[in-house]
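Researcher: Structure prediction, please.
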Amino acid sequence: MLYAVTTLVQPAAAEDTGFESFRNLAREALCNNVSPDEIDFTDTQSDSTLRLDLSPPPRAIVASEPRSSIHVPREFLNTAVIVACHRDINRWNLLYRLLWRLQNEKNLLRIESDLHVARFHALDHQVRHDLHKMHAFVRFRRVEDERGEAFVAWHQPAYRVLSLATPFFAERFAVMRWTILTPDACVSWDPQTRQATYSGGVPQQHAPQADQLEDLWRSYYASIFNPARTNPELMRSHMPVKYWRSLPEVELVPHLLSSADSRVESMVMAQSDLVTAQPYVPPHPSLSAIRQALPSCRGCDLYRHATQAVSGKGKASAALMLIGEQPGDQEDLKGEPFVGPAGQMLRKALDELSIDPKSVYMTNAVKHFKFVQRGKLRLHQNPRMSEINACRPWLEAEIDALKPKVILCLGASAAKAVLGGTFALMRDRGRFVETRYSPNTIATLHPSAILRTQDREQAANLYNFLKSDLQIAHEKATG
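Model: Predicted structure follows.
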């Protein structure tokens, strides 16, 4: 016998995807050992309050061997709540079939090649994508009513994601009184009670007309528009046409695209006026010439407070080049790289690996110590990217003079200076990549990261990472 479950999923008083009702019925059916082939869940649109009906009633489902327990993994439950927001008419049958199989296939959800699992994840991805679009494309307009100022937005999501999106807007606009209107349901936020109230959906005609907020939003959008990264096809994929009618910035796009080339030229000209150390670098530098010229550098403001510029140290024949972030307090006072606590840890690791520190070249991406004064202490501050870029000519001159076989970057700042801003240290550390500076460029963590770690076991693991990366860099450099 085939049991038909009818799910009414268009309530008038609340944003309800029907998941809780499905959950109760699915539990009843599972307990009574009703297989997916014996039951059929179907959606029906109705203006009445949500309910699920089973014919015959759930209590009439009788199995010869009822289940004593039900296995529902948390991973399935979390994703099922998302999938329930989809409009696929077969989503309930899919969820129940997966539940049925999970009772005997505990690791089912890890088998991505399974057709049911693949469909489950596909629906989840589509709903999450639509939720992301709602976060990005909702535009509030200011209105006045008997209670004073309020903000109203109208949005038409592809799926029933309003209840999923509400926590995002409640957190971001917690002190505002706002309402989001959609064709399926509406939600209003009261900042005094900190509660969201749902009601029935409305057409776009109920949304307020344009207001002064849209001028502010257009100004903001124009200011963040990057003319150097114009890709109309990509823009259309990120900002689909169906959302245009509620996006005030859309009317600016044709003008911004047409003026992109001229704005890029202006940006290039502005970049040429930025401060840089290039004028202070000798035209055909050797390592000794760099050391002699470096003290005169005024390429950025860091020289104003540091004791001195700290050049690199090592033989011109060194095959391995170590690049740190910047001098520390002790390096600034002594004028040598890696002589402070972090440098001592680095030298300890080299010694344990039987690597002579004199056989490698040590330097920093930034040549002056950046710090903030706290009483008698000078506390290290990370250099900004503009300061790393300003100091880059010195680093490039050292690399050009040394021509190392291998470059090992110590820490995130050094890695970004050599490998670019998209490099993720803990994700990409320990792997050789080819750069314009060296065919064998690698990055690891900075010894100071180990010193900052309070947990002894974690510190030991980080120290082993450092030693491992030092070893493979040295082996590569020495052939």
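Model: Residues 7-14, 46-64 have pLDDT under 50 and may be disordered.
Researcher: Thanks, that helps.
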